[in-house]
Fold:
Amino acid sequence: MSRRTPLRVAVLLGGSSEERGVALASGCEVAAALRSIGHRVVSIDSAVGPLSPDREQLIRASGIGRAEIPVPAPRNPHVLPDAAVIAREPALADSDVVFLALHGGAGEDGTIQTLLEVSGIAYAGSGPVGCALAMNKDITKRLLRDALIATADWLAEPAPGEAVAERLGLPVIVKPVSGGSSVRLVLAGSIAEVDEATAIAGGGGDSVMYEQYLSGREFTVGILDGEALPVVEIEPVRELFDFDCKYEQGMAIETAPARIPRELARRLQSSALRVHRVLGLRHFSRVDFIVDERGRAWCLEANALPGLTSNSLLPKAARAAGIEFPELCERICRLGLEAGARRPEWTGAVA
Structure:
């Protein structure tokens, strides 16, 4: 039981993005953890509405995407379903703080953060600008490059396979510019595969990005309340740390803390903090790296709302720092509550 006053927490999960299954799993784990230490929690699927306790239990027992709740066809295709739920759901306004356990789409690109901001609802996690910057990998890499943080070369517009190979070499990573969880990410080893991967990554009208493939050891660093957590090393069973490796048990070995020299760990933590600040992130995030055979660290991307499932990396990093999952979730909630208290109230006055 938490020693402090219990909070009324609305966990916003699910949503309408391609990462809906991950967001359902993350949110149900967060809700259960917060209840275990005495907080009063309601789970709200941002695309559908409140979840029943039975549905939460089913999602937790079934794993990612196996207890899916379909998103109903919108009455108005021009209105984001998440926006309609947020506008009508009183539990959000009645909560002390909203815990965002959303991934991808409107939940991570700043849209829902903006809706909460204009509604005067306190929430945990990065704000609209930070989310938008981190979600768009082209903009992220431009900001990293300007800040002299090493990142792989890239192209952020559709191009013929021959042009991509000439610029970036083969193999090459092909992925959506805005997305996460390695959804529609492809490692293309030939010109023909680049062209095929372009169609896959651009499915649904998304912008496509090509990124130079870097070989080396993969690491990730979580950030919590302005401090870097222990470095985690990721060793996927496949060449690429793809969706299955991220979310299926046994598909990757994740060592927390990483068994690396202290100097390398400090460099990765320092670089992760710089990335977090350059992108204007807050409360918590996760930054991914490749360290090549020469020992140089390359930033792959930043995650404004990293996964919080039972197999996710941020909770493993926190545990390596002595922070168990319920405490991690509570600390994130209180950071959101403090940020909401600092925000000036809207008075209706016009300057």
Q: What stands out?
A: Residues 346-351 have pLDDT under 50 and may be disordered. The longest strand covers residues 217-224.
